[in-house]
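Tokenise the fold.
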Amino acid sequence: MIRTGRKRALPFLASAAALGSLALPLQAYVGPGAGFAFLSSFLVLFLTFLMALFTFLSWPFRFLWKVVRGQRAYRKSSIDRLVILGLDGMEPTLAEKFMAEGKLPNLARLKKEGSYARLRTTTPAISPVAWSSFMTGSEPSKHNIFDFLSRDPRTYLPDLSSARIGKPRRTVPLGKYLVPLSKPDIRGLRRSVPFWKILGEKGIFSTVLRVPITFPPEKFKGHLLSGMCAPDLKGSQGTFAFYTEDEDKVRKREGGVAVFVARDGDRIRTEISGPENSLLREPAEMRLPLTITVDKKAGGARLEIKGQKTFFLKQRSFSPWVPVVFKPGPGFKVRAICRFYISSLEPRFEMYMTPLNIDPEKPALPISHPFIYSVYLSKLLGRFITLGEANDTWALNEGALDETAFLELTYSNHAEWEAMLGNALRKTRRGLVTIVFETTDSIQHMFFRYLDKSHPSLKAAPARMSGAVIEELYKRMDDLVGRTAAALGDRSVLFVMSDHGFKSFRRGVNLNSWFHRNGYLTLKDGKTESGEWFRDVDWERTRAYALGLGGVYLNLRGREAKGVVTPGEDAAGLKAELVRKLAGLKDSAGGSTAILRVYDRDSVYAGPFKDNAPDLIIGYNEGYRASWDGVTGIVNAVVFEDNTKAWSGDHCIDPALVPGVFFSNRKIRTKDPSIMDIAPTALELFGLAPPPHMDGRGLIEIAALAGPEERKSS
């Protein structure tokens, strides 16, 4: 028996922003099936062979061209290499505290010898928005990313804001199959140009690792491995599996599926649930038989994936990456990798399985540029996690993993990324190396409650750990910074930065419930509550609704399918009324201010995609955020409620409260840098003028680029 939680077709619950796995009735991602199958293992290997042959035959010509062009490309450059370490969500107050206590010596050295400042984030302070501004140097209405979610005004349903994966446009029927004759339609929705593409046009090479909103990968002169928003093999943002003999635990789970298993002697027969097989005329989910033989004396179990893999796994230890192959039809293979963790053998068997990751060695979808870059990394370093939402925060939220196992898995993923960084630093001697570690973001989301003794989750469940988890996290990141800095020469510039900071998330606010209570949102006759995604909302009598982590939309006539608010004066008047009522909104319990500010998009944005932004953006106060029900379109009588989940820290609040951090081994010329300043600064360091569309400004004077010895002599 399998019971499915809300499918994580959106990243915002387990990402820097926040919310978790949501089962969306979306078409944002479709089941891989025919779409994935076009890249069979044979085709991957064949393409790899052709590329290797071409590389071998053409290397003398490419070497000469590289020398000539390289000399020209770096002629005006003030540096040889720029290295950017993105530590997603690093909080400035914590970094400053730990530096003052002598616990972050490497970051303190950067601050003393170079620069440190709090880094202004975007409006809103949500990871995909901020990292898009990082790479393009522009405000959100120029790059078109405003949240993890966008909404379809025709249906009022959410879509993933970053990408679309559609089925192949051309197929041919063959019996029960629809054989694809073309690739799936894969489109990125972020607009504007990443600064590394501009560098590449001038001949400057870049290695870009796991930066959010880089799926699908774009062509440029360099190597790229996609980060946040890259899907799993199911096409979701991460769907774990939890196998259990405890029927009471087989319930609806956010972000995963709960699978009831029954033991026959020492043997359990179950299945691995795979992607939808869209090769079939009537698509159906593919499944692989899984047999588990419990061996109590050996302290583990033997797992057999029928016809593929058999291995022994000890209790409370993670398996290595296990390759899994689904066969949607004759001649087609869809390859995944996953890891297993047995949490209990007795009295009841329980086991966690990670989401099915796209196999980097034989990828079913393009997750890197060039396509074979992920193959190269996998052959060099071993298989690694490819899911954009890598650290399974919802498995911890839902009890499929305990805190110790979650930390082990998270730091294991982190070690894979450090190995990639090390390889990039060795291979990219000139140009750009940039990588984003989500470790800081994931661990703070799940353990921030240990820094807040009044957090409701500590009352709901006993505290098993302490704030030492966060301190240890910062120490580990400091060590990473120190090792990276030691590998750089005098003509290398190092930036260490975060996209936003972090605060405690104690109370949730359901704005849709507030809209209903105050007459702006109406339910259908006879309904007092709405199911997920506004199921019971009467749109013909609704004037405003909230969607995502902080967006409010007017039900505008001519834009929304059943809009009732007239554009122009009526819409402007309604926005002004909502701003007046929501700004300073008090929590019914205790009277604390829940919302500090409400931003009108017409006041904060000026770019060509402004009309795609929410009409209003909510700036929550510290301690508050959109509630779990509110984000999923549930309307009920509860406006304010305690957050009792392990997910206890967040940043989807007023941007002024959650700046990021910025360290540099060179002096900067402002005390108030913005995340939009990184892109133009990178271009100027390599002697290029930033394009006019960039809103950021260069941070470093040319005179500040002298190496340590030159600075001493001057």
